[in-house]
Structures
1.
Amino acid sequence: MPVAGRVADLVGKQRVLVASAAILLVGSMVCALSSTLAPMLVGRALQGLAMGFIPVGISLIREITPPDLAATATAAMSATLGVGGAIGLPLSAWIVQAGNWHALFWVATALAAVILVATWFAVPHVRDAQPGRLDLVGVLGLAIGLVSLLVGISKATVWGWGDVRTLGAIAAGVVVLLLWGAYELRQADPLVDLRTTAQRPVLMTNIAAVAIGFGMMAQSIVVPQLLQLPEATGYGLGQSILAAGLWMAPAGLMMMLFAPVSSRLIGNLGAKLTLMIGATVLGTGYLVAFFLMDAPWQLLVASCVSSAGVGIGYAAMPTLILDNAPAREAASAVGLNALMRSLGTTLAAAIMGTLLTSRTMSLGGFEIPTKGAFQLCFVAGAVAAFVGVAIASTIPRRGDSKTLDPAPAVVGAAD
């Protein structure tokens, strides 16, 4: 996502949107044609590359919409993540039950083709390219550091948090990222301008993104499992994969419904308070789930409350970034913020997995999480959200901090 953002700043955002849609098309087709693991991994990696579409699209919105509609448009674009998930959950479940997983990726291929055509013909071709170069060493360093760090985190549930492989991968990732940061600071044209990123409004927004991303992902992991566990457990709700998807679908739609609410809050209260409100609502949803988890409709209510908070908060974050980053770095700055949210979701996957396996019971020869394990997950999600509120409270109001001018060339910087 940061690379797509940087390339968008250099060559133009509409071009990168088209390229991302084309990569999604190819990746989906590779997955659809796969019958073994290796090509499936290639296809999924290509689909992951296409995720740069979202932050680039958010940054482009500021350039193609009237100023009075910019906040609403940004909120709507941010909310599409939830709407896509809301539609995708039951649709993918139905496709797999009616056919097979190959059909699922053929549907994704067709959707990618529609996106590609629509992006090519419907998205304005804005002349927004900026002079500069792509820092290929920075791209490689960021990739190595992130992969090592995230592999260590995501495999911690399997390897164990104290395993030498887990600690080694995480430590190696941290070291590489520190070296990458030192290198980036010496570049006149870096992949990520860390001086801009270090400004308090941008820095604290990105840190809050980790906590809120954690809170968003936690429910996506925990609630479907609780819905599908057999009723013989005493707390499982015995829903099919399709039924579980349908119970989860309204939560995603709540994100879109709250997009105009977020826009109104941003206009009246500012993006900082809006982010705090969104994170508070998100945490409240987890508290509701802690006490109401005995019926599918109860989890539906809790998920809708949490998703309303995500819808409010996700619109505020890019607004804060765009308000405090130079226009020439808009896409890369939003891309980095999206990356921080993804880091939060990865942390959530690992920690939720650890919590769910920390308290288990035997049923039919299988070890399954206890009710207390699920409640512990809801507590962790609430804590993450409220930590996000605390972090967001430290973001200066607009005008309290200055956006730094472009950094001058330093000794050793590239020409």
Note: The first strand starts at residue 360 and ends at 363.
2.
Amino acid sequence: MITDMGANRFVTQSLNDPRILRILSAVLNAVDPYKAVKKYLPKLDGDIYGLAVGKAAISMVTALADSYPLSGALAISKHTSSASSADDHPPLSANTMSFPLLLSGHPIPDARSVHAGERALEFVSSLKEEDTLVCLISGGGSALMTAPLIPLDELQTLTASLLASGATVNEINTIRRHLDRVKGGGLARATKAKIVSLILSDVIGNSLEAIASGPTAPDPTTMEDTRLTFEKFSFNQPTILQFSNSLVETLKPNDPIFSRVQNIIIGDNKLAAVAALEQAQREGFDSEILTNELQGEARDVGVMLAKKLRDEISKRPRPFCLIAGGETTVTIKGNGKGGRNQELALAVVNELRGLENVMLIALATDGDDGPTDAAGAVVTGESAERANRLGLSEADSLSRNDAFPFFESLGDLIRTHPTGTNVNDLIFLFAL
């Protein structure tokens, strides 16, 4: 049973329908990392060690520590705590709190990220063949844990450029894997221990090499793929040559190292979308999942989804709920503040203008949409007129990539705080 306390984290000026709040709460409850680890953790014996990295690290390592006595553990995350999505989620156990927690930079890696990468390599390299290393991997790990083969300032510049260019997470992580000692199977290479990796996926298609850049996974991409990615995003030749000289080849699927590695996906965007679908049906909505592979420029995807909503209004009985999952990108041309979900929402304000009892909700499941404290935003048929009365221009804000202050003025930013999970984004189209 989902309580109002869990559902009320999503309330905004326009979003207060208890049915919709329960649907959103069901999403986070379905991909609660503590429950997922407890569900999928296999039977282990001998000396057990834990390494948790990513935005869900704390909940995941807590579940491991509550399941087995650990001989050692290390957690690397962005936040010291998170808002639980489950009513019965326990606090950190005494066993968990006895292990180090390192906080580091995201989405741009910082000196703490490098320190975390070195600590992780040192930790796993000390283990013996008879030991079992349980790796608990979630989204954000690529930036939070790094052992770069180029100077940190160059890595930061490269990462920022790729994020601003509209590159997908797969493209960014292809480059990261070939410029880092911990990625692309690097963590597995650094230890003699048996490895069980429980992985909360934040990438479309659940490609193991892309989630946190695959520290325990084989990498099918090559250095040549990395060079082609550089060229795609118009890096100049001196820059390409500079980085190409530092590239290393990653471990491939046929490497014997992986005979002692077990990688298990324990949660993803599809699981979250199905939970939303089932809750929506319980609430009386005609419901459908459109896709879990939503990609593309956020503003273009937003317009496409708004048109889908307008089209379905004439075909479906109300109330209905359409669900789309994935991860869009933003090519930054302005100097505004926002994130991909906020930009997607901003692009549909005029598309939904004047429509009665409709709503689009764009939600980052980790609670972090871009470099803001919002998880996303809400748009209704009244948003455009409300914005006009406040002197706000959707087109002007969009041209500056400045969605955050637009929706903050409307009171329609979703602020869940860090959720402690991360399975991409979900977009909801409602007609009430």
Note: The mean pLDDT is 93.
3.
Amino acid sequence: MDANLPVLALLGPTASGKTDLALQLARNWPVEIVSVDSGMVYCGMDIGTAKPSLQEQSEVPHHLIDIRDPTDAYSAAQFRHDAAACVAAIHARGRIPLLVGGTMLYFRVLRTALAAMPDADPAIRQALDEEVAAYGLKALYERLCVQDPRTAQRLQPTDRQRIQRALEVLQQTGRPLSYWHTQTPSEELPWHSATFWLGLFPEDRFWLHQRIERRLEQMWQRGFLEEVWQLAQRPDLHEQLPAMRAVGYRQALQHIQGHIDLETMRDRALFATRQLAKRQLTWMRSFAGAQWLDPSVLNTQTLCKELELVLKKAHNI
């Protein structure tokens, strides 16, 4: 890998201005954007994921957007593989990869080696979904407590996705998830040491909460409910799919199905988005080695100038 072609990673909480900053940077630097967002991988989920518009995608090459159907599972391991392929291809074109997003698990697997893990099994997942419907999630959690107590101890009894994944691995391999976490991990990515980590970390929480509220209001105005209604017409889509459990989509689907009224949907979506931002910021605090910029006191143009100065000094480019 050419040392003059680093990998840039821009992370931050939802609604902090990552997309605007990335597009501004792309106007001045030879970058291609790689999405680090677990929602943007899905086709048809545009408004609720704040996906870059088609015009924005035509201005700057974007990758790992619209690569899966909402019925498909997409794991962190798959993302790691796909992101590595994108970075290699972008470097081969003599350009700079700019990894942008807020899915902190995806950033984590780019920074660290990944434990060996079996792929998902759709048949087992469907059977576990049927068990939950018949006996409730509590029954599955109690089974996990017996069969893999170490994993069960670190999971919440309401964490359906992770409980089912742990039981799925047990059924596939006969070994608990805790065993696989001790196996020889994958190698570090070849560009690990050349990655420059940048983060938008707003110190003013009121500023971020206002941005979140404004974004949600724009989503409703742009037709987010209609987007979810279109998805809900598909007989193969249901609320237990990972895609449909995304913040905003889950609440909108509950409203469309008649479980909650419009005001409750909006309140729950706002609360869930704020909680997501809180989790993202908590994870970022433990993120060592990143250059932090505060978008609550700097506008996009100033942020871009600050970012460019840092990059030129760090990489001499």
Note: The mean pLDDT is 87.
4.
Amino acid sequence: MNKPHVETPPPGLWAKALWMADRTPENRNRTVDFLRALSILAVVLGHWVISAPYFSNGIPAYSHILDLAPWSQWLTWLFQVMPGFVFVGGYSNSISWQSALRKNLGFGAWFDSRIRRLIGPVMPLIGMWAVMVAIANANGVGPTMIFIGSKVALIPVWFLAVYILVVALVPLTHRAWQSWGLASILVPIVAAALIDVAFFTADQHTLAWLNYPFVWLAVHQTGYAWHDRRLTGLRTGLLLFAGGLLSLFALTQLGPYPLSLVGVPSDAISNTLPPKLPLLALGAAQIGLVLAFEAPLKRWLSRRRPWATTILINGMIMTIFLWHSTVMMLLVGLAFWVWPTLLSAQPDSSLWWAIRPVWLLIYAVATLPFLLTFSRFERPGKPCGSAPVWRQLLGIAITCLGLAMLAIGGIGGPGWLGLRWVPLLLPLIGFAFATTAARSARK
């Protein structure tokens, strides 16, 4: 009996992307994939632009331009795109969760696949930094340089720690959307606003950490609304964009919130740590732009090459997000050590801005080998089972705690081999605890 012929993609990344583009179903919302790629690329570009290594009185120094040139904080209104990413995530999670329900997969199998795709690629990054810090410590590199390098490189994992918890709540939040509709968006927005009032008027800084779920879940809920076409159209988009932008301007220029939409060390208050109302205003503006340009974007992405490029980027999107800061810190460290004059330009000088495009090109080229090496971890093998839900949730909670600690304090410390062993081991132990049972189920 002849076996049915199964098409295999051609070799080469671009050829494979074109092959996949030609086989994309017509009913796929390509805008979602494009916005996911655009969001991550904007994050990468923003991090590379604001990075400001230089020499201060002959001593290597590392800061970022937002601190050294306050006017540049306006740029964060363009490069802070995480609200848009979470919005798109709500749309995608609505599709995948409803698909899982139709197939009777259950939460365990559905969540297991997301654990592996979101957290799995982080493990090589943590392992590589553990080795590099141990080697640097053994060769006399100062703790300050190790702290700065590892913290900057591992800052991207903070968002994964937040987003995976949002994903874990999808069964509850999606049911809330189906039951209460737009009220499921308004309630967390009102809660976030009340917490901000308490933050500024009653000095309730600890309470403000509750805004992590309220702010990001509110944005995530709007993705459900987009999927169900409760938010759509040019008029709605323009109203959301204008309202969000005006609100953002009022909050930061007339209200008590700082201008920057990412953390700035010199600011006493951060709009992101923990998240505050300006991120919701920015999210409204970004969602408005998406709705306003959805139709022309769909037409453009129906073309072969733009869609193939989107497929190519999305195939390594986690690797780009996780490794771009590592590439930057490795190159900066190498320049400090081998060719110091490359970093002689003082930040915010005309020369510094003139050579930024050169540095961006260098960073991009240097990232390519990392993409080719580590993007394979974005494609985990198909599991034959999943761990009990309680193990998944507990394991991921442990993982997220470790990731948050690494993002805040880096990986270097006073411990054995110069490592901070608790935050280093928590993600590894948590991830193994959440997924090991799924592997044992194959036996």
Note: The two ends are 30 Å apart (CA to CA).
